[in-house]
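Lab notebook, entry 146. We have the chain sequence and a SMILES string for zinc ion, and the next step in the workflow is to get a structural model of the bound complex before anyone spends time on docking refinements. Request logged below.

Task: model protein plus zinc ion, output structure tokens.
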Amino acid sequence: MKISQHIISSLPLAGVYYLITKNLPAAFLVVISTIAVDIDHVLDYVITQKRIDSIKNMTKAFETFDIVHKNYLLLHSWEALVLFAVCLFFFPNPYLIAIFTGYMVHLLCDQVFNSHFLGKYNTKSLFYFFLYRLHMNFDVLPMRKG
Ligand SMILES: [Zn+2]
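Result returned:
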């Protein structure tokens, strides 16, 4: 999903979060964490291209895959989310729960939208598992049209 779509998805989520918790800073963290997960794309761009470009060019590189042919995407991993959940179990904190909520919704939106509706990757449902991407040597394999 594009960053603008993540912003739009985070606003009603933050509203509901605020209604439930009455914690405005935590609701704000839901918005920030929903958006911030895409820092992965910037990191992957810098790792693969060994340079920094404009945010626009770096995010666009992941729409076409003409430039970037590897997807490490450490945060875009269900395994990382499970580790986060385990940490929350042992160290519950309202602000960490807010970050977890935004992170989880980001991953869910990407999983459903990119893998199923957009058909962006030929990796189907497993793309958002780090171990699967590791098994695929982090290669980007866009869907072929036609
Ligand atoms: Zn994402």
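Notes for the group: The mean pLDDT is 88. Worth checking against the assay data. Residues 3-135 form one domain.
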